[in-house]
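pipeline stage [seq->struct] | target=PTS system, glucitol/sorbitol-specific IIC component | organism=Virgibacillus salinus | residues=180
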Amino acid sequence: MDFLITLAEGFIGMFQAGGDTFMGLVTGIIPLLIVLITAVNALIKFIGEERVFKFAQYCTKYFILRYTIFPFLAVFFLTNPMCYTFGRFLPEKQKPAFYDSAVSFVHPITGLFPHANPAELFVYTGIAAGITELGLSTGPLALRFLLVGIVVMLLRGFVTELITNRMIKNRQQESENIAA
């Protein structure tokens, strides 16, 4: 009998934990995202969508800027997860690479700019704890994290863009073969 009671309590407890998680989202990140989206859209309207698109086109004209400066600005100003909305300023074929670039940068930026991804700050602080225990400054570690992150986001953006272009080309060839 105790087994059935424990099983029933565990079963309902799983749903209670899910409900608690859901309420945490409803009272935490969802309102934050709605306010952030509203603020960013208002700022874009205030600056002018054409100007923002022109700036984005300038920042993304060359792949080196597209996968370094542009994702850096997105993560720095909009933080995780709102930063991915910067992809709306890119052509469809560049969106996967931008996302890959930005998502690879949300951890490395936290050492110098913890506001960018505070929910994942424990990754950096866990590594920095060893440096602190040695009596060393964490500044150089944070800078190295940032620099390596920029290199990684550039490489990932470049590789993902190559893969995306290859997939688009293959799909176009398949469509041509079917039509012929």
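stage status: PASS
auto-comment: Helices lie at 2-27, 29-47, 49-59, 63-66, 69-78, 95-103, 121-133, 139-179. Residues 170 and 176 are 10 Å apart (CA to CA).
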